[in-house]
Write a structure and sequence with these properties.
The protein is an alpha/beta fold. It has helices spanning 2-18, 20-33, 49-58, 73-83, 99-103, 119-125, 140-145, 147-150, 190-193, 206-217, 221-235, 248-259, 264-276, 280-293, and strands at residues 63-66, 88-92, 104-109, 112-117, 129-133, 155-158, 163-166, 172-177, 197-200. α10 packs across α12, α11 (221-235) packs antiparallel against α12 and α11 packs antiparallel against α14 (280-293). The longest helix is centred in the N-terminal third of the chain and has 17 residues, at 2-18. It starts with a helix and ends with a helix. The structure holds adenosine-5'-diphosphate and magnesium ion.
Length: 294
């Protein structure tokens, strides 16, 4: 029994060593598998974004999601990837992100150099949705790399291997961008911006945001409405010393704390006033808002 098991295992192994390409395919399959979204993510549509995104997908148009942090951009793209039945490859952009990080590199493994696809290459090969989160953070040379993928050529030059990949129809490039952080140094060039259609996101309207808090935070309707009202009032402080209003994400955190038994005042302290500002004066104003509402 053991012997035959061992034999099976051996023959299985040798099949793979002798057919390096099937092993390679297995690794590629594995690499994409983790990007598949199996269950429908909870997403409450706010406007026409779902239909617009589907039209962009059909028309092979790159999409830019614009809006403040924590207002639902990531959740939306997860939902759309699930809805369109595409894998989702997300890359958090930062200033050290190089073209090589996106496309791939040769790595030394033992005494062999083995090519490893980067996330963008994986996405192109599999007709996935590639989501470049906070694209302004990426280096200029990295941003330029996506240009040939965004026009009608739809190609990805893989310079290190001397090859060019043609993106399949299903491939889609999506970037996110927070206009609030705009500065002279960190802004997208027109030559980049004008390659995308822009979908504008903002905090959901009050009744929808309350529904989201009830769903995500497992709280009752009254508490949800109170938190939303606090959110609205805190958002009005924007410009009065506050750089950005409180995100839906933070309101969800507050809701989750309340539902696990934390007093609402303390929940708002740690989930709202503390994260959004270091200014004790502003924190006091937020505390006042909280105690008048709850
Ligand atoms: N329209 C929405 N439908 C469902 N959940 C939402 C929606 N908008 C915001 N959320 C909630 O807010 C949280 C933060 O949103 P996220 O998509 O991560 O923000 P962003 O990517 O814009 O920074 C999500 O995890 C989700 O709980
Ligand atoms: Mg996000």
């Amino acid at each position: 029994m053991r012997d035959s098991d061992d034999q099976k295992r051996l023959s299985h192994e040798s099949r793979f060593t002798h057919h390096a390409s099937s092993l390679f395919m297995a690794t590629v399959e594995q690499a994409i598998e983790k990007h598949i979204i199996p269950l429908e993510p909870y997403y409450l549509p706010v406007g026409k974004e779902v239909g617009l995104f589907e039209a962009a997908y059909r028309g092979k148009l790159p999409v830019m999601l614009k809006g403040p942090t924590g207002c639902g951009k990531t959740r939306f793209i997860e939902y759309m990837a699930w809805r369109l039945n595409r894998p989702l490859v997300t890359v958090a952009c930062h200033e050290d992100l190089s073209a090589t990080d996106l496309v791939g590199r040769f790595l030394l493994e033992g005494d062999e150099t083995v090519w490893h696809d980067g996330p963008l290459t994986i996405a192109v090969k599999h007709g996935a949705i590639c989501y470049l989160d906070e694209v302004v953070e990426a280096r200029k040379d990295t941003i330029v790399l996506i240009h040939p993928l965004t026009d009608d050529r739809r190609i990805l030059p893989v310079e290190k291997r001397g090859t060019i990949l043609q993106a399949p129809d299903e491939f889609m490039l999506v970037v996110s961008y927070n206009p609030g952080y705009q500065s002279v140094l960190k802004d997208l060039k027109q030559s980049t911006r004008q390659r995308f259609i822009g979908l504008e996101f903002d905090y959901p309207p009050a009744p929808l945001e309350a529904d989201i808090l009830m769903h995500e935070g497992k709280i009752d309707e009254q508490t949800a409405r109170d938190l939303v009202l606090i959110g609205e009032k805190v958002r009005n402080l924007k410009g009065h010393g506050l750089e950005e209003g409180v995100s839906t994400r933070l309101l969800v955190y507050a809701a989750q704390l309340v539902s696990s038994g934390i007093h609402p005042h303390l929940a708002c302290e740690v989930a709202i006033s503390s994260p959004i500002t270091d200014d004790s004066e502003l924190q006091r104003s937020i505390r006042e808002i909280v105690t008048t509402v709850i």
